[in-house]
Amino acid sequence: MRPQDLPREARRRALPGALAPFARRDFRFQWPADLLTSWAFEMETLVLGWYVLVSTGSVMWLSLFAALQFIGTLVSPMLGVIADRLGQRTVLAAMRASYALFAAMLLFMSAAGLLGPVQVLVVAGLCGLVRPSDMGMRGALVGATMPPPLLMGAMALQRCSSDAARIAGALAGAGLAAALGMTAVYAFITVLYLAALALTLGVREGRAPAGQGMAAAASPWSDLAAGFSYVRRVPPLVAAMCLAFLVNALAFPLCTGMLPYVVRDVYGADRSVLGILLASFAVGALAGSVLLSIWGMRLLAGRIMLLAALTWFPLLLVLAWLSDATAGMVVVGVIGFVQTFCMVPMAVVLLRIAEDRFRGRVMGLRMLAIYGLPVGLLAAGALIGWMGFTPAASLFAGVGLVASLAVMLAWWRHLWPAEAPANGARPAGAAARAQ
């Protein structure tokens, strides 16, 4: 160990295992920046989703609004290329500046009395060009600044920021909108984004961007093609990408985007119940993140990811048949807990396997899997309108369970054995170099 690293290492050992990532200066800036960004995201989703549903009375308009927030998944791989060239911090800061700009646009329209469902959809579409990549860039930045032994704990804590924000965002969004109105809510959201931007600018990436030295030698498109080729050659990455698409297409639409419809038309409740339901999901997710931050290093990431996915879909089947809001809150909370044990290990598998020079592109391609979410939301809206919530949700859960079993069987030897690279048996990049 270099002498200049000794004080930092000493500080890391002095912290409890779950808090060890906070010994690193960059993580102390990134974690609150991610927290504030996620808080603003959750407030926007709740407030605007309810506004669109009440203004139009249409579940199809609601599903369209939810889908537009993820339209940018198609450009996520190119953002990954840019991040590999310029650095994850630079790209993430630019993205968060755009969130503040879009929030300020909605604030101005609300204050001027110009806000309507069409305007909301337009701004949601613009913001949706970059917003889906935020989570991937967060993970890539953690991977660039965090040593491998702390990676699982850091990713779990990073997920805690999202989960805690869901609780605060859901409750604050519902409460502020009811008490103060849309304009006051968007003034608060704009401030959150600006604060997140300032904190993001305080992060210093631990290594120079891998592609910085060859930017003139290769086009972005060839870099993107190299990223696709790299992922295709590494079985654990392919398996994680497939599972990511499945849960986004078949699981998240039922436990996030369609909840306003469930609250109003299945439970017969109002916006306050929607806030509590979203907070229940977040409380469960936060509990899972806390446990992972404490015990995550003892777990086999690939195996836990599979088991959690195979538990998630049966829980959605239970949710599909409930008509009581209180029971729904309990089940949604358990779903939130389980999905953390799927999504955090999935990110760890990707960051553990990916070589440094491909990290941005791998996480960008991971965000491409979120394209399943708008597809699933639009399909869910159409099917619910045609056959009702219970049959449609049961169909989604059943297909998701079968598909998850297929992923497990197809890539069993790459994800399940303790000696598999996805479970930490070899250092990052070893699996790829072995191909």
Overview of this protein structure:
It is a single chain. The chain is mainly α and about 425 residues long. It has one domain: Growth Hormone, Chain: A (Up-down Bundle). It has helices at about 5-15, 25-55, 60-70, 75-85, 90-110, 115-125, 135-145, 150-180, 180-200, 220-235, 235-250, 250-255, 260-265, 270-295, 300-320, 325-355, 360-370, 370-385, 390-410, 410-415, 430-435. The radius of gyration is 21 Å and the shape is globular. The two termini are about 30 Å apart.
* Gross morphology: globular
Give me the CATH superfamily: MFS general substrate transporter like domains
Q: What structural category characterises the helix and strand content?
A: mainly alpha
Strand proportion: under 5%
String of helices and strands: HHHHHHHHHHHHHHHHHHHHH
Using the coordinates above, name the CATH class: Mainly Alpha
Count of helical stretches: 21
Largest sheet features: none
The termini sit apart by 32 Å
CATH topology: Growth Hormone, Chain: A
Unreliable stretches (pLDDT < 50, length at least 5) are 1-14, 210-217, 427-435
Q: How helix-rich are the residues, as a percent range?
A: over 70%
Average pLDDT metric? 83
What's the total number of strands? 0
C-alpha Rg, in Å? Answer: 21 Å
The number of domains is 1
